[in-house]
Hints:
The protein is α+β, with helices and mostly antiparallel strands. It has 4 helices and 11 strands; from the N terminus they run ββββββββαβααββα. The protein has helices at residues 105-111, 140-157, 167-209, 232-252; strands spanning 7-9, 13-17, 30-36, 41-48, 54-57, 60-63, 67-75, 89-97, 118-127, 214-216, 219-221. The chain has a 5-stranded mixed sheet, with no helix packed on it. Strands 1-3-7-5 form a 4-stranded antiparallel sheet, with no helix packed on it. Strands 10-11 form a two-stranded antiparallel ribbon. Strand 10 and strand 11 (219-221) form a beta hairpin. It starts with 6 loop residues before the first strand and ends with a helix.
Amino acid sequence: MPNQVLTIEPQNELKFKVDFSGLFEQGCTTYMRLINPSSDAVLFKIKTTAPKKYCVRPNSGLLTPNSKIEIAITPQPVYVDQNEKHKHKFMVQSVSVPEGKLSNIDQMWKEISPDQLMDYKLKCVFETPRGTNLNDSGDNAAQNEVNKKRVAVADEAKPTLKTLPTSENVENDLQKASLEVIHLREEESKLRQENLQLKEELLRLHQTAGGDARVVRGHSYGPEKQAQAPSLPWMATTIVMALIGILIGKFFM
């Protein structure tokens, strides 16, 4: 495999800023510079072991002789897993192409054999706000803060659970409510019977008093209107039904 013809800056590692929980800082872009010092055009590609966590622009292209380009690497708003932080790496692949062969770049990549490619790898380093290195497993203070913050986030994400009554309590309440409803219905039945008896009594009194019209001083009068007794039983029935509705409503709320 030939040596990398491009000059790459930085040379060994790419630094990214994260908070103590391992979350990438938003809008924090790291730059890689590629320089072509040769007299041939060079095709390049940027690859990473974590493609879903970084946005690379441009991730491929062509460098003419004695030209350079800056590659912007922007992390996505995701966490860096402690178990995989050492696995994040970038690789620059390149190949020299004579000017006369520059036609279809996509087709050229398909025709290039692996032994023609020049590879160069860079590791990722994650720095916390205190300047500590998240890659350093010996940094106990930073690790403790990471763990605390993740526990706090997990606690906030837990839904608040309401305490539900046990099945035994529900059964007892149902029995009480059923007995109360039965008792109220019996009361309602009694009131209806009393109401019917009262109506019959009023009708009997009305018939006894007589309904024929009387003539007084040449004027004809109809029977005097009897004062209607207030329908107390019906009012009581209404109150009982309202109480039944309230009890049932409170139980099933």
